[in-house]
Specification:
Length: 477
Amino acid sequence: MFRQMMLPVSIYFICGVLSGLYSCSFLTSKRNKKLTCFLWMILYIILQFLAFEVVARKYPIVDVIAVVINATFIFALQLFLFRKDITKQFFVIATFLAGKETVKYIASIVYHIAFDWEMDLFNSLFDKGLLSTTKQVDGFLGFGNIIVFLITDMVYVLLLGGYLHLINKKFVRREYKFSKPEYFFLITPAICAICVSVAIRMMFYSVEDGVPVFIYEKVTATLVWIPIACILLLASIIITVIIFQNIVGYHDEMLKSKVLESQVTQIQREVAEMQEIYSDIKGLKHDMRNHLANIAMCITSGVDPEGLELKDYIGEMEETINKLDFAFQTGNPITDVIIHHKSQEAIKKNIKFTSDFSYPSKKQIDVYDVGVILNNAIDNAIEACEKVEGDREITVLSYEKGNLFFIEIHNTFFDIVMDDESGMLLSHKADKEMHGFGMYNIEKSAQKYMGGTDIELQNKDGKRIFVLTVMLCKTCE
């Protein structure tokens, strides 16, 4: 009885450990991660033992029901130990059960081959008279069974553990929100593997004259083809994950390229506008002598003794000059334009805008990269302020410390959404595929100068303040 229980209990233990580690890698624990894995292992082993070693001995469980029971156990443990995430939970259940159900047929064939070798060796030693006593026979069979169990368990651990490790390693975009067709594409191979494994289980052995007969005893070729079919099923699941991740990565890179392209277009538009302003300034300078001559003639001729026409003329000149004047002088014409435009946009939305931004003194940072940071950061700040009722404000400032240049954007906010796993900000916008890359572009520009970003949430005078700090190294490009 003890020997009969060794193999299934060891398999329950292996599955308990591997399924716990696998679930912890995809799902967010409600408790300490190590404690979660330990609780999962203990509960999984107990549930499996009760269902398939106690209940099933009295009330035989058919193959399909056994798979459903396993899925139910895993789902119940997920709900108890992890935060709810239905999409990932079903993916974990399907891929784990596909591996568990498929690998066991390979391990079963290995077990029976190893057991046959044990019996062949036993018969050989018995015929030679080397096993002549009951004690020697029991000792040999006991030791041989342990070796067979160890070989079977080792094969099971290597195959199931390797399969789960590859999925865990290749599934890198875990924060990605699946569409229904994408999720169907991703999970279908695992469901197919489960269905095939159930079909194999129905054919794996039959009972003839009260004696179980395994399929490979009738058809020897199944000793090769069943393991090959099982390995191909597992490989199809892994390959599907890899392909899907590559597609998602390519899709994201295309979207990021579009966002960066729009940033380049915006910078080019601002450069063109700055050049137009400079052209207007040159034109104004050229016409200034004529304006001064006209004013002098108006004064000396006495044709406008009350000065009304002269006042209107000078007023028009002042209005023209004011259009060419920026409230914020940053030390660079491009950043002048960016902050000027963003301030005008904020003011139109009743957002108080202040700036103490100065372009770095030694000009060692490309203005394009600074423009990308300012455009994205201020756009995000304006978007956050729009959700705030009452006083709303944005402050842009910069400072230098040695070789480091810092950009800070402070803004009031109502709420932010952060991904639990990546810690990244998530977009509030409905079209999340074309948005949410603002922080990515800021990070990418900062990393170009061996820098990075930092986010701090503050409370100031009863207001919630979001502070984004971007650090750039002026000499590390």
